[in-house]
Amino acid sequence: MNSGSGAAALSHMEARVRRVRRLVLALLPVFGLAGCAAQSSSSATGWYDSQNGVMPRPERVYICHAFGCARKTPVDLGRRDLNRLQAFLRSGAASPAAERAAVARAVAWMESRVAVQVGSQNDRGGLDLQGAGVPGQMDCIDEATNTTSLLLLVEARGWLRHHSVRAPVARGFLLDGRYPHATAVLRETKGRDYAIDSWPKANGLPPVVQPLDDWFRSRAAS
Questions:
Q1: pTM of this prediction?
Q2: Which of these, 127, 134, 211, 203, lies nearest to 169 by C-alpha position?
Q3: CB neighbours of residue 156 within 10 Å
Q4: In this structure, are residues 186 and 164 in contact, taking their beta carbons and an 8 Å threshold?
Q5: Short-list 53, 2, 34, 64, CA closest to 180
Q6: What pLDDT shows up at residue 35?
Q7: Cα separations in angstroms, 197 against 58, 80, 103
Q8: 119-130 per-position pLDDT tens digit
């Protein structure tokens, strides 16, 4: 290896280390908030203060991107958008499982809806440290925040019949051999929590929906 290529490789490695450090620091408040408990123990509102996010408004969401909510793009939702979201949730009114499936469809649609305005149409799913600081690319903090914002918006309009929105939670902290990761959470009225995890999938694809206990046990990094 010549000196030029060696210096380039070292610079690339240092950049990766910096990206990991930034994500770990961003997740520190999450661990303090969620305590890695098997259920989300708090409401969602405190999340925004800890992660530099902005709570949704009745007809506006603030889309986090560029990792760790470094950028926040306001997106206004018109009547047609709101009607579309309501239709998604109505299609899941029959049962908690149907509502979670409807939520997954709504999350996927919302990602496509905001993509051009935010520049996230090429957002890559899963662990992708190359995207740190890149407008339109999203880490798990961005994804958990954006999904929670959508869930809060539909909850405020009374469109969730079988669930309530909880604060995002986190798993993994390197010391346990797992990469740090966070997810949005819905609580079924019977008391069971579910992860609504859009981070593993590319923009516009349905999120992973699974019992939160199973999500906590997972060691997947993508």
A1: 0.80
A2: 211
A3: 13
A4: yes
A5: 34
A6: 33
A7: 23, 26, 11
A8: 988 878 766 666
Q: Could you give the CA distance from residue 106 to residue 16 in angstroms, rounded to a whole number? A: 33
Task: For residue 78, name the pLDDT band (cuts at 50, 70, 90).
Answer: very high
Beta-sheet strands, E only, within the chain: 60-65, 71-76, 163-171, 181-188, 193-197, 208-211
* Residue 69: both structure tokens together: 């909510």
Give the SS3 label for residue 167: strand
Residue 135 makes CB contacts below 8 A (sequence gap 6+) with 65, 66, 71, 119
Q: Is the pLDDT at 77 greater than 70, yes or no?
A: yes
| Residues listed for the chain | 222
What's the pLDDT score for residue 72? 97
Residue 197's SS3 state is strand
